[in-house]
């Protein structure tokens, strides 16, 4: 299986990085290292979410015995291509097609849930405080 990253994907990641790095209210020189790290984190999470999405499609294709020719990342996403002789989504059974199609968005939902839980769910902090004995039980 080949894995390709197209120029357009690199361009989009660079653009997302630049847009998150620069704030029109501030000059470029006043940006801090934390601004740089946040911008880099956004690009990495975006890139990894697309990679996980496409590899999820490829994993389910493999479970159904469909050989994957390549995964290619493009402008705002990517695609997973089956080897010749294994057909495409028009020739697969509706069940296979559903499973292969559904697992990509499911992986993105899972990533979003993990990120939300890690950064925004306050109950996680309460559990941490109880386990470590730090903080309050509020």
UniProtKB/TrEMBL annotation:
Its main location: membrane. GO terms for biological process: proteolysis. One of its GO terms (molecular function) is metal ion binding. It holds the Pfam family Peptidase_M50. Keywords: Hydrolase, Membrane, Metal-binding, Metalloprotease, Protease, Transmembrane, Transmembrane helix, Zinc. The keyword Protease applies. It is found in: Membrane. Residues 43-123 form the Peptidase M50 domain. Its cofactor is Zn(2+). GO terms for cellular component: membrane. InterPro entries: Peptidase_M50 (IPR008915). It is a multi-pass membrane protein. The chain crosses the membrane at residues 6-21, 33-52, 100-119. Belongs to the peptidase M50B family. This is Peptidase M50 domain-containing protein. It comes from marine metagenome. The lineage of its organism: unclassified sequences, metagenomes, ecological metagenomes.
């Amino acid at each position: 299986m080949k894995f390709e990253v197209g120029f357009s994907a690199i361009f989009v990641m660079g653009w997302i990085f630049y847009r998150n790095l620069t704030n029109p209210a501030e000059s470029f020189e006043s940006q801090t290292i934390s601004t740089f790290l946040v911008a880099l984190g956004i690009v990495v999470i975006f890139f990894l979410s697309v990679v996980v999405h496409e590899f999820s499609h490829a994993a389910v294709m493999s479970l159904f015995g469909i050989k994957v020719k390549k995964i290619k990342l493009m402008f705002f996403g990517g695609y997973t291509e089956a080897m010749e002789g294994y057909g495409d989504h028009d020739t697969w059974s509706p069940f296979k097609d559903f499973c292969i199609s559904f697992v990509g968005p499911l992986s993105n939902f899972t990533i979003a849930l993990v990120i939300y839980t890690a950064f925004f769910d306050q109950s996680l902090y309460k559990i941490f405080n109880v386990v470590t004995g730090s903080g309050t039980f509020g």
